[in-house]
Amino acid sequence: MLAKLKHFFSQELKINDQEDTQDKIPLAAATLLIEVNRASLDKSSVEQQAIKAVLVKSFNLSEQKIDSLVEHATAQDEDVTSLYPFIKLINKHYSEEQRIELVKTLWQVALADQEISIYEEHTIRKISDLIYVSHSDFIKTKLSVLERNA
C-alpha cells in the first residue's frame, strides 16, 4: 500500500510539460466528481452517467477515453487518502471561472439521482473551499443546478 502511494505521488501526479498537464487535469476533475459520487448513500448508475456526461462536455474526449479516465480515476480514488494532489492541480491550472464551473458540475452529479444527500453536500462544500470558490458562488451554483432541474 505504501509503495502504491509513493508511486502515485511521485509518478502519477508529476507534471513535466504542457501535454502531461492536459492528461492530468481531466483525471483530477474526474477524481473530484467520483468523490462526490462516493459520498452518496445510493451509488446509482445515473450519477455515474452524469459524471461521464460532464467529462465529455468539459474535456471533449471520446467515449472510450472517458470510460478509461473514469476507470482510472475510480481506481485511484479508492487507493488515495487525500484529495490534495488533485486540488493542487485544479488550483494551479484552472481560472476562477473554471473552478466555479467545476463546483457546478459537482452539483450536477450530486443531483443526477434527483436527490442531494447531506454527505454529497458536505463533500462539495469541502472541495469548493479547497479550490477557493467563495461561499456565495457555492450557493449560486447549487441554486442554478436546482432551478435547471426543477
CATH architecture assignment: Orthogonal Bundle
Identify the quaternary structure here.
single chain
**Per CATH, what is the topology?**
TerB-like
Strand content: under 5%
> Strand pairing plus helix content: what structural class?
mainly alpha
Q: The biggest beta sheet, please? A: none
Count up the helices.
8
Return the CATH class. Answer: Mainly Alpha
Q: Based on Cα principal axes, name the global outline.
A: globular
Average pLDDT reading: 84
How many strand segments? Answer: 0
- Taking Cα atoms only, what radius of gyration do you get, to the nearest Å? 15 Å
Protein name: Co-chaperone DjlA N-terminal domain-containing protein
Task: Give structural notes.
- The protein is globular, with a radius of gyration of 15 Å.
- The termini are far apart.
- It has one domain: TerB-like (Orthogonal Bundle).
- It contains 8 helices and no strands.
- The longest helix is centred in the first third of the chain and has 22 residues, at 18-39.
- Helix 2 runs parallel beside helix 6 and helix 3 (45-59) crosses helix 4.
- It has 150 residues and is mainly α.
- It has helices spanning 2-12, 18-39, 45-59, 63-79, 84-93, 96-111, 118-130, 135-149.
